[in-house]
Design goal:
It comes from Desulfosudis oleivorans (strain DSM 6200 / JCM 39069 / Hxd3) (Desulfococcus oleovorans). By secondary structure, this protein is of the alpha/beta class. It has 13 helices and 12 strands. Strand 8 and strand 9 form a beta hairpin.
């Protein structure tokens, strides 16, 4: 999963990128593309690792991409074209020499930029189809219908993501439409401000408040220092962890686990994926030769205390090719190739 950070200059994209990824400041390459992969915190992995004492413990990963933080806006958007979703950072704190923050207006302005970028892509494709038609090449009727729908939505000021069946249409996948991507908005507040901006928030937008400078400070601390700091200020967890979970939910992702003495590992799949697809996430041979999946729910394993006890209690079950995976499933794939 790859998430791209976007936003106006001065919004705090760089600060939040470094807080999310715990990467070092990179002032020497201002404006360059930055990509960092991080492990997704999951207390279930910690518990399973303590239970099995494996040689390796592997968390699910998420990749963050930060485009240009200065200069050409189009280059910033182009840098995130291949991302699965976008995180828009919106300034809600005063900066000397800059206008007063207007977070909700900034959200709307970014949507306009995303739609304008998509409009250019759609227009170029329609022009090419028209040119091909003059040479006798017949257009794909389904593609044309989708392109016309997208163009009409944009002309009406409606982001493509508001129509999921269009946004996820396979025929449109190659266009990397920006307004079709899910968006999580991070309202970047001052250190002592935890409230949403005044006024009604825009509809259809998933947003949450973060305090970028504070999160950046926490990300520089050791685990023990961070825990003490959070306790002192009555903070349950860093907002960055919540942003990770919201990103997962926004993309419709869930986690399942494989466990053993060699390795405890979290795997990421789309909600609704069937058991063979989950097997393919581990290895393509497992999907090709899938026979059965031995499954126990995480909560059932915790209640039993051990895999052997869960089996005695009958909560370990065999599932076939039509089984829809659930978040927290612990699986052992039976296959033959």
């Amino acid at each position: 999963m790859k998430l791209g950070l976007i936003g106006k200059p001065g919004a705090g994209k760089k600060t939040l990128f470094e807080a999310l990824t715990k990467s070092d400041p990179d002032s020497g390459h201002k404006g360059d593309l930055r990509i960092a992969a991080i492990y997704v915190p999951d207390p279930r992995v910690d518990v399973l690792s303590a239970m099995y004492s494996p040689r390796k413990t592997i968390y699910a990963q998420i990749e963050y991409c930060l485009g240009r933080t200065a200069g050409d806006k189009d280059l910033q958007l182009k840098a995130v074209a291949d991302c699965d979703a976008l995180i828009q950072v919106v300034r809600n704190f005063p900066v000397p020499g800059m206008p007063d923050p207007s977070p909700y207006k900034d959200i709307a302005a970014m949507d306009e930029d995303l739609m304008l970028s998509d409009f250019v892509v759609i227009e170029k494709r329609l022009e090419r189809i028209a040119a091909d038609a003059k040479r006798g090449k017949k257009a794909d009727a389904q593609e044309m219908a989708l392109l016309d729908q997208v163009k009409q939505m944009i002309e009406n000021g409606t982001p493509v993501r508001t129509q999921p069946e269009i946004a996820t249409a396979p025929l449109l996948r190659g266009f990397s439409l920006l307004s079709a991507k899910p968006v999580l908005v991070l309202i970047n507040n001052d250190e002592d401000d935890t409230a949403l901006p005044a006024g009604p928030p825009p509809g259809g937008i998933d947003l949450m408040v973060v305090r970028g400078k504070l999160e950046h400070e926490i990300s520089r601390m050791s685990d023990d220092e961070a825990a003490e700091f959070l306790k002192e200020f009555g903070i349950d967890e860093p907002a960055i962890h919540r942003a990770l979970r919201r990103s997962y939910a926004m993309l419709g992702l869930i986690s399942f686990f494989t466990v053993g003495e060699d390795e405890v590992r979290a795997w990421t799949i789309k909600k609704g994926a069937l058991a063979p697809e989950a097997a393919g996430t581990i290895h393509s041979d497992m999907q090709k030769g899938f026979i059965r999946a031995e499954v126990v729910a995480y909560d059932a394993l915790m209640a039993a205390g051990s895999y052997a006890e869960a089996r005695k209690q009958g909560t370990v079950r065999l599932e076939g090719k039509t089984y829809e995976m659930a978040d927290g499933d612990i699986v052992n794939i039976r296959f033959n190739v």
